[in-house]
């Protein structure tokens, strides 16, 4: 990891850069440094799925899966009474479910959030090494120093951060509710310290006009979407709707017909009238989209130019570490248990509870995705 210091009129910021797996710029799981499980035959997958289902029942466990993990895991979660969702609904579902054990198929910060909300439950993950570039790029000590430099600001952190970073925050947000919460804080006259995703932060600032100082991080998947390549793809599919996650660069967001969270993008396909959709988010979401909108054509947004070996490689290498065998192993052997120190858990709980209370008190907070975004203007 390379660290670069930069300075703005608001103070010092740090940028954390990660070498990509492909020198030509493609973020592709085929070249991932993460430990992606080897492919299995259909028979092996069916056997592992059946075994995992038995173990979930035996151990009074429920599987909570993110939209970006392998389709077999998503199907297993739904077939066994679990949940497939974005990070906001994953947090709420795990907290409210009666199971004594939560198996979180996703990345580490999701497991930590589940443990923060459910300290009396055992929280397991198929692979504890599954992490996130946003989490890695926001070290707690560096972030604490950044907060100390801006003591007059409300600290708002994205869910994609460690428990230790959340412990320093006033608010946690997900992409589903970030706009509403930042707008609420602005209306109260608050200034914001935002971390860690710079693209999402910029989008929220443009939409709300809030006074925001930002940590300079990025998702290695969404950061790779290319505006020029997307424009060329749109020319090939002029009737397609472009759906973009706001962790994407500004040039990509500017072309979107819909900007929203994973759930909002999914809903836009299911409820939309178009027949073709260009999807600018992790391609793991396409599994659920195809199930819920089988008659529609889904096109992956490009992450690289013509010279790249992988034209559309939008899949998180850490999400790809989650596998059926990992669910079996963590339940059979107790591997992958999430542990959050109690003092950190108590401090981090406040920012998550504050978000959940806000969303409950403001049903409109999970608003419809933004349509027809125009930079510097907002929704058109």
How would you describe what is shown here?
The longest helix has 20 residues, at 342-361. The chain starts with a strand and ends with a strand. Helix 13 (285-292) links the parallel strand 13 and strand 14 (297-300). Helix 3 runs parallel beside helix 4, helix 4 (108-117) packs across helix 15 (342-361) and helix 12 runs parallel beside helix 13. A five-stranded mixed β-sheet has the order 14-13-11-12-15, with helices on one face. The chain has a four-stranded parallel β-sheet with strand order 4-3-5-6, sandwiched between helices. It is globular and about 55 Å long. It has 380 residues and is an alpha/beta fold. The protein has helices at 42-58, 71-79, 87-96, 108-117, 133-136, 140-148, 163-166, 178-187, 198-208, 227-236, 250-253, 262-271, 285-292, 324-333, 342-361; strands at 2-8, 11-17, 61-66, 83-85, 101-105, 122-124, 154-158, 171-173, 192-195, 212-214, 241-244, 258-259, 276-280, 297-300, 370-371, 373-374, 378-379.
């Amino acid at each position: 990891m390379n660290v670069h210091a930069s300075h703005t009129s608001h103070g010092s910021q740090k940028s954390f850069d990660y070498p990509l797996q492909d020198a030509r710029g493609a973020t592709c799981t085929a070249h991932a440094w993460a430990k992606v499980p080897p492919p299995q035959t259909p028979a092996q997958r069916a056997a592992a799925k059946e075994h995992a289902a038995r173990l979930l029942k035996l151990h009074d466990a429920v599987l909570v899966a993110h939209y970006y993990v392998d389709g077999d895991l998503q199907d297993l979660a739904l077939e066994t009474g679990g949940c497939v969702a974005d990070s906001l609904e994953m947090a709420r579902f795990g907290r409210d479910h009666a199971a004594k054990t939560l198996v979180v198929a996703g990345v580490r910060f999701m497991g930590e959030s589940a443990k923060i909300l459910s300290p009396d439950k055992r929280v397991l993950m198929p692979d504890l090494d599954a992490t996130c570039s946003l989490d890695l790029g926001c070290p707690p000590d560096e972030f604490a120093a950044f907060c100390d430099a801006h003591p007059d600001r409300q600290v708002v952190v994205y869910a994609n951060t460690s428990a230790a970073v959340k412990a320093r925050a006033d608010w946690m947000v997900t992409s589903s509710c970030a706009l509403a919460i930042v707008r609420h804080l602005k209306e109260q006259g608050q200034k914001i310290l935002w971390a860690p995703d710079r693209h999402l932060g910029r989008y929220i600032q443009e939409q709300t006009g809030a006074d925001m100082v930002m940590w300079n991080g990025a998702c290695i998947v969404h950061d790779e979407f290319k505006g020029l390549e997307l424009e060329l793809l749109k020319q090939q599919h002029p009737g397609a709707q472009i759906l973009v996650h706001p962790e994407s660069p500004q040039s990509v967001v500017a072309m979107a017909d819909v900007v929203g969270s994973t759930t909002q993008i999914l809903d836009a396909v299911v409820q939309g009238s178009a027949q073709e959709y260009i999807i600018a988010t992790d391609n793991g979401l396409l599994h659920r989209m195809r199930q819920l909108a089988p008659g529609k054509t889904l096109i992956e947004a490009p992450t690289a130019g013509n010279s790249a070996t992988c034209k559309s490689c939008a899949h998180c290498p850490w999400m790809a570490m989650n596998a059926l065998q990992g669910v079996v192993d963590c339940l059979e052997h107790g591997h992958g248990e999430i542990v959050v120190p109690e003092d950190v858990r108590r401090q981090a709980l406040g920012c998550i509870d504050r978000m959940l209370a806000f969303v409950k008190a403001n049903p409109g907070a999970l608003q419809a995705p933004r349509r027809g975004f125009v930079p510097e203007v907002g929704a058109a």
